[in-house]
Write a structure and sequence with these properties.
It contains eleven helices and two strands; from the N terminus they run ααααααααβααβα. The protein is mainly alpha-helical and 191 residues long. The chain is globular.
């Protein structure tokens, strides 16, 4: 970790958080299954800090078959019971059920001919919104785009996709560039 670099203030000095900020957050993701996985992780964050999920991310990939919606959609009551006992994830029944339900909703969209990536990126006109944030206190929690995404995802059967979760997701997958303007990642995250 290079101490000379100017970066956003939110990762602090935690090496896991700094690595995530420097190498992932805000970088555009366009693969449908990668976007699905990130949406599941953002939903798991509800009511918690992102670092809590980040530290369990590998556990989610292990427990949920690499967050593959086609495998997750087949989970039965026994699998749910196993998941609710696994300390590698957040053991919240509603969040586990939502992840499985979201996998089914994802598959339903694909069966209807809807490309998940195209669907999600349509809320930002298929290109990254370049915000000009000068201070962490200026970071928004929602936007008209996240409101619209949340509404559309809920209509499609997704859970744990409120506007705040959708906005955090949009930041994470590069739909909005919310790196501070003086952060070294700001220009790297411009498409």
């Amino acid at each position: 970790m290079n101490q000379q670099l100017v970066r956003c203030t939110w990762p602090g000095s935690d090496p896991i958080y700094v690595d995530y900020h420097d190498n992932e957050w805000g970088r555009p993701v366009r693969d449908s299954q990668d976007l699905f996985a990130k949406l599941i992780l953002d939903g798991a964050q509800a009511g918690l800090s992102w670092i809590t999920i980040l530290k369990r991310r590998e556990g989610y990939y292990q427990c949920f078959d690499h967050l593959n919606p086609y495998k997750m959609a087949l989970y039965d009551d026994q699998k749910v019971a196993e998941l609710l006992q696994d300390v590698r994830i957040i053991r919240n029944r509603l969040k586990v059920a939502a992840a499985i339900g979201n996998a089914k909703a994802y598959i339903q969209m694909e069966q209807e001919g809807i490309n998940f990536s195209e669907f999600l990126w349509s809320f930002v006109g298929h290109k990254t919104i370049q915000n000009q944030i000068k201070s962490s206190k200026d970071l928004p929690a929602t936007s008209p785009e996240s409101d619209a995404m949340s509404k559309a995802l809920k209509k499609a059967g997704f859970k744990f996709v409120g506007s705040t979760i959708c906005y955090a997701f949009m930041q994470a997958v590069g739909m909005v560039n919310d790196h501070l303007e003086d952060c070294f990642c700001y220009s790297a995250c411009q498409e």
